[in-house]
Amino acid sequence: MTALLTVYLLMWPVLVLGVLITIVRGFAKDVKEARAEGRQII
Length: 42
Fold this sequence. Notes:
This protein is mostly helical and 42 residues long. It is 86% helix and 0% strand. The chain has one domain (1-42).
């Protein structure tokens, strides 16, 4: 039971990191495209 609780507890930081990486990748792609087109991101 302790092992399952440990896995459950440690799963959340991994999921949050995955979502954060996805968001940062999308933002970086948008910034790169904006710079290539010569426009501001904001």
